[in-house]
Design goal:
Layout: H1 8-24, H2 31-53, H3 58-89, H4 96-124, H5 131-145, H6 162-175
Length: 201
């Protein structure tokens, strides 16, 4: 479903388009080469975003936390303020529960502002993120993504696991007489080439 108001469906379509463009950029390479290049490029882009884009948004997080804190304080403290005026005009004391509520509302407002400032500092600290750290995160992600492919004597590796498919393709590419880097005829393809693991009983 397409929308023109910038709602979630439109954002999903934009994200899908970016994924398609990103994937298509590497489709000219043969599968055994395409996957490592894709992973390396993802690491580089992720690292550059953390180092140069995220820190610049730190000020926005500070500003948003401050404005949201003021909004929360206004919304939560307005009823407490109105009730307090009413009790004072009637010459009555302020109930303890109203005092507790007012203190709670102030704490929520302060926490909102502190959260924005903390988030902003964390985002600005991304300038110190190292390439090794990003690489380590990617490795952990890939291991988790392929954890079902880590076989054992009781549970052999799955033939359909991405790491197994890529390794089969890479071995087939290495065993071939030639080692082309681009798909035949310069036509992009998403299909891996190579031999397959024998079926495990």
């Amino acid at each position: 479903m397409k929308t023109t108001d910038g709602g979630p469906p439109a954002m999903i379509e934009i994200f899908d388009l970016l994924v398609d463009v990103w994937t298509e950029a590497f489709s000219w390479f043969v599968y055994p080469i395409r996957v490592p290049l894709f992973i390396l490029a993802a690491i580089v882009v992720f690292w550059l975003v953390l180092r140069h884009v995220v820190p610049r948004a730190g000020g926005t997080a500070d500003w948003t936390g401050s404005k949201l804190s003021a909004l929360v304080a206004t919304v939560l403290l307005a009823p407490e303020y109105a009730c307090t005026l009413l009790f004072l005009r009637q010459g009555r004391g302020i109930p303890l529960v109203l005092r507790i509520y007012g203190q709670w509302a102030e704490n929520v407002s302060d926490w909102t502002k502190t959260a924005g400032q903390t988030l902003g500092r964390g985002m600005r600290a991304c300038t110190r993120v190292s390439f090794r750290a990003v690489t380590a995160v990617m490795v952990v992600y890939l291991v988790g993504y392929n954890v079902h492919a880590i076989g054992s004597a009781e549970r052999p590796a799955s033939q359909d696991a991405p790491v197994v498919v890529w390794w089969d393709s890479f071995q087939g590419w290495m065993d071939a007489p030639e080692h082309p880097l681009l798909e035949e005829g310069g036509t992009p393809s998403a299909r891996p080439v190579g031999h397959h693991h024998p079926q495990t009983a």
